[in-house]
Structure formats: C-alpha cells, structure tokens
Amino acid sequence: MPDADLPAALIFDVDGTLAETEEAHRHAFNEAFAEAGLDWHWDQARYRRLLDVTGGKERIRFHQELAGLSVLDDPAIARLHARKTALYVAHVDGGRLGLRPGIARLINQARAAGIPLAIATTTSLANVESLLRATLGAGAPGWFAAIGAGDMVARKKPAPDIYRHVLDRLGVDPARSVAFEDSVNGLEAARAAGLPTLVTVSRYTDDQRFTGALAVLDHLGEPDQPCRALAGRAPAGGVVNLPALRDWLRG
C-alpha cells in the first residue's frame, strides 16, 4: 500500500505532457489532407491557434468554420480523422517519439510505491496506447488503472468530464491526487475536477498563462537535467519525485 502522505494517484495528460507529440500530429493531419485531395495545410502558426480547440475531429470542424467552408460533413470528418490517427500511430510505432524528461522515472517511482496511475486526455485511445507501448514497453498500457481518452465523454477539455470519468474509476480523493498538464485547457479541466495540477509547458503552450497551477515547470527533470520553475517553486534538486509532490500537496 502507498504511504498515506504521498499522492493518492497520478493522472497524466498525453499530448505535450508525456511527450512532445504535436508536431507528429500536425504532420499526420497534413498527410491525411493531402491523401483526401484537400488543399489544406496547417503550418505551425495555424496549428498553434487550432490547438485552442481540443479533439482532432473538433479541430477539423473548427478549421472549416474559420475558413467559411462546408466541404466535409460529420461522417466525412470522422473518416478523415480516423486516417489521420492511423498515420500518427504509424509514426509513433516507428519509434520516432520519446518521452519528456522525468516522465518514465516518475511513472516507475509511482509503480514501485503502489500509487495508481491514470491517463486523462482528449486524444484517441489508439494514440495513447501506441505512445505508451513505443516508449515504455509492450505492457505499459496495463500499468494504468484507468485510461480516459478520445470520445469516452461528451465534453472535452476544458470541461472536467474526462478527469471525472477517470476519478470515478480510480475511486481516490482528487484533492490528494496530482494531475499533470501542459495547456490552459487541461489545467482548467483538472482543477474543475478538484485536482491539484502541475504544469510542464510544451512547444505549443509556452505562451499560455497557468493561473492556479501547483507550479509551472519546463519539464519534470532528471538528475543530470534539472527542471526550471517558470512560476511557483522548483522541486529540490530540480527533479519532480514523490516527496516533491507530497510537499506541493501540503502547500
């Protein structure tokens, strides 16, 4: 059983939090558009704006609305998004993405301490499982007591639904657990579910403001690669570990 003073559970977002995935997603979208004969191309500036909308199908729909288009109906959007997901998964399965600093270390520490792990994300379940297998090993999806992903809930972040979905399955006190996020939408979702939240900014969220986070860091840190605090206090030694999370929860 885990120490009662340690977090009751660790709940991770995926894109931008576990790994810097968004460029792989952007390229997969553009490949899918080209295959479908669409003259759409999302450059980095456009994609940064589109990331304000959570969910890939929702992002495609929003792009159409911005451009004043009605090229694709909902079934066509779903098919296009499914192809994009397949392209992304192939990219990940090829071993071309790695976890951000400190992620694997902290996950392994939590497992050793008996602390439940969970995922709460708006990305597709196939994307989550592919990333976990490619970076942590074939059995890694089974390490997580709950995986909330994709369309498992009606409303996506910043609504708290996906976090509440996961918390229901974990059966833990949200106030004693920690969520890990990289975006304002994710932070708002986690906090609305009652979860203290640690933010590690990512490539596409470095211009956002994270009011209410436990702290805002550049990453979780490694012994040879200490993290920096962008807001709040950095952990001792520049490494986020279970004692550091305990101390944040204590305030």
UniProtKB/TrEMBL annotation:
Keywords: Hydrolase. One of its GO terms (molecular function) is hydrolase activity. This is Hydrolase. It comes from Acidisphaera rubrifaciens HS-AP3. The lineage of its organism: Bacteria, Pseudomonadati, Pseudomonadota, Alphaproteobacteria, Acetobacterales.
